[in-house]
UniProtKB/TrEMBL annotation:
Gene3D superfamilies: 1.10.287.70. Belongs to the two pore domain potassium channel (TC 1.A.1.8) family. It comes from the Eukaryota. Residues 176-236, 275-356 form the Potassium channel domain. Pfam families: Ion_trans_2. It comes from Nesidiocoris tenuis. Keywords: Ion channel, Ion transport, Membrane, Transmembrane, Transmembrane helix, Transport. Residues 1-74 are annotated as: Disordered. InterPro entries: 2pore_dom_K_chnl, K_chnl_dom. The chain crosses the membrane at residues 84-109, 182-203, 215-244, 265-288, 331-352. It is found in: Membrane. This is Ion channel. It is a multi-pass membrane protein.
Length: 392
């Protein structure tokens, strides 16, 4: 009995021509082996062609992707970029990236703002010159023995000069030129105050390009600072937790039990508060000695800066003589102090949040135990009350 192959689409397309109502069935020619024309030979041929096409596609794909020469410049650049991106995602990379971002911003703002001179300098110079000329005219016009008349006219002239200087100070005049104000340490502190959102306000851009660049700089710098804040907090929290564990083991004389998993140590909130107190006290002493502030003002500056309040009434390195002499290392040290201080605050936040989570878990557990105890007491009271009632 020969295998009868089902009619295919090619067989169904053979209809009778002329559009008649009847159709002539198509007769499939039997193969010499007794089957239809779609027998094993045809199927084997199709399989071989399919395998050949698959092999050709595999060879093409291997030639396009597998045979890549790692010594080519494109591959070297790609590998280097992947390495740099991987390093920048680490904690050390984020810290280096935030410092590099601040340094690049400092040089950029120096180049933009130092070339635009303050108009208040010429205004105050004209006021000073006019005041001297008017006083000289008064001396020549009035009798030197008429002290009352001279004092009255001189007071009017000095009041006019005072009003002009006050107006110039409101517009940012501090006696320094643009190059003296926008030195590298000052520009570095300005960049820090932008992306950390402290905003001292003692140094601001005057040009339109500087203002537009500040907006763009803050848009990219604030997310980068948040990433630094989170990563640095985790690193410092891990280091301080390890140090606290070692210190507690040394003080109590206890060692890790063999065969058991290490017990997680929760750093108490008092330790975090002591760390903050020591860090603020260090800054207080340092700035009090450098800036000749009293200790209350130094503490006020450290707390308002680390808490990102930044009123701007106390800023290190604001001395005009030091600015003109170029000795502004205090601003660089202040930059490092604030940047590390932000990491210390993030560390304390992470450690204290663990304590809060633990306390909340204990509170939830105690609340459930208390509610369960109240439920048991109510059920017992209800059962005892109903058991004592006489049966009607």
């Amino acid at each position: 009995m020969s295998d009868a192959a089902p009619p295919t689409a090619r067989g169904r397309r053979h209809k009778t021509a002329g559009g008649g109502g009847g159709s002539c069935p198509v007769k499939l020619e039997p193969s010499p082996t007794g089957g239809s024309s779609f027998g094993p030979e045809m199927r084997d041929d199709r399989r071989s062609r399919f395998r050949a096409s698959v092999r050709s596609r595999e060879s093409y794909s291997s030639a396009g992707s597998g045979d890549v020469d790692p010594s080519r410049p494109q591959e070297k650049i790609k590998s280097c970029c992947r390495t740099v991106v991987t390093f920048m995602c680490t904690q050390v990379g984020v810290g280096g990236l935030i410092v590099a971002y601040a340094v690049i911003g400092a040089f950029t703002f120096m180049h933009i703002e130092s070339r635009a001179e303050f108009p208040e300098l010429a205004l105050v110079a004209d006021l000073r010159r006019n005041c001297a000329d008017e006083l000289w005219d008064v001396i020549q016009a009035e009798n030197v023995f008429n002290q009352t008349r001279f004092s009255q006219r001189a007071a009017v002239i000095m009041k006019k000069f005072q009003l002009g200087v006050t107006t110039a100070v409101k517009h940012g005049y501090d006696g320094r030129t643009a190059a003296e104000s926008w030195s590298f340490p000052a520009a570095l502190m300005f960049c820090l105050s932008v992306f950390t959102m402290i905003g001292y306000g003692n140094l601001v851009p005057r040009t339109n390009l500087g203002k537009a660049l500040t907006v763009v700089y803050a848009m990219f710098g604030i997310p980068l600072y948040v990433l630094y804040f989170m990563s640095m907090g985790k690193v410092l929290a891990s280091v301080f937790r390890w140090f606290y564990t070692k210190m507690s083991q040394c003080c109590t004389g206890s060692q890790k039990r063999d065969g058991g998993p290490p017990k997680k140590v929760i750093v108490p909130s008092t330790a975090c508060l002591w760390v903050l107190f020591v860090y603020i006290a260090t800054g207080t002493i340092m700035f009090a000695e450098w800036e000749k502030w009293d200790y209350l003002d130094s503490t006020y500056f450290c707390v308002t800066s680390l808490c990102k309040i930044g009123f701007g009434d106390f800023v290190p390195g604001a001395n005009i003589l030091e600015s003109k002499s170029g000795h502004q290392t205090k601003l660089v040290i202040n930059f490092v102090y604030l940047l590390v201080g932000m990491g210390v605050i993030a560390m304390c936040y992470n450690l204290m949040s663990e304590v809060v989570r633990l306390k909340m878990h204990e509170l939830r557990r105690d609340t459930l135990v208390c509610l369960d105890d109240i439920r048991i007491r109510l059920v017992a009271c209800y059962t005892r009350r109903h058991s004592s009632d006489p049966v009607v």
